[in-house]
Amino acid sequence: MTAQPHDPELERIRAALATVHDPEIPALSVVDLGIVRAITRAGDGTPVVRLTPTYTGCPVAALIEWAVRRALDAAGFAHARIETVLSPPWSTADITEEGRRRLREAGIAPPVEREDEEGFFCEDPAVPCPRCGSQDTEKVSEFGATACKALWRCRSCREPFEYFKCVPRLRLRRGAETPAG
Ligand SMILES: [Zn+2]
Q: Are residues 68 and 140 in the same domain?
């Protein structure tokens, strides 16, 4: 995310956005999730929040934008504008380091990014257990509590855990954003 140097109002907007949590992954704010691409100012000085939607088919995108609008209004930024940015598309690689730390704290294994995978979600990589760090894990079910997560189990500590599935960047809007080559 790009931030402009020392603009107190934009900093307060950023703080307000840090309180907006993903409905499906409550451990993550929209900032942690990496869907806030920029907090900036338009030519006329109006604060602008640039949001990028998460993966197609996840019905929460509209809900997230609504929650961002509500948080901005509640924090006194009713004049701030929300713009949708479609390119580059969001991927799980955009989840911040802080976001990955929060996921592990919540017992959810953060996505393991891999290049050049076929299919909508990356194929299953070795997913380290978020509790004990063991690589001796196995997938139990493709879908956990939400479609974005799979259910895994650790053979070392014997605890089940959720894995936030990798969403590769170039497969999000097939046809709409075909990369050259
Ligand atoms: Zn474990």
A: no
- Mean pLDDT for all residues in the chain: 84
The domain of 9 spans 2-85
Give yes or no: residues 29 and 73 share one domain. Answer: yes
CA of 134 to the centre of ligand 1 (A): 5
Query: What pLDDT, on a 0 to 100 scale, did the predictor assign at position 63?
Result: 81
pLDDT of 70-107, one tens digit each? 999 999 999 999 998 888 888 888 999 999 999 999 99
Give the distance (Å) from ligand 1 centre to CA of residue 77.
44
Tell me the angle at which helices 8-17 and 61-74 cross, rounded to the nearest 10 degrees. 130
Residue 92 lies in a domain: no
- In the chain, the amino acid numbered 12 is R
- The predicted model scores a pTM of 0.76
Please tell me whether residues 125 and 145 are part of one structural domain. yes
End position of a domain, from candidates 85, 112, 147: 85
Going by C-beta distance under 8 Å and a sequence separation of 6 or more, which residues neighbour residue 132? 154, 156, 157, 159
List beta partners, residue 82: 49
Cα of 137 to ligand 1 centre, how many Å? 8
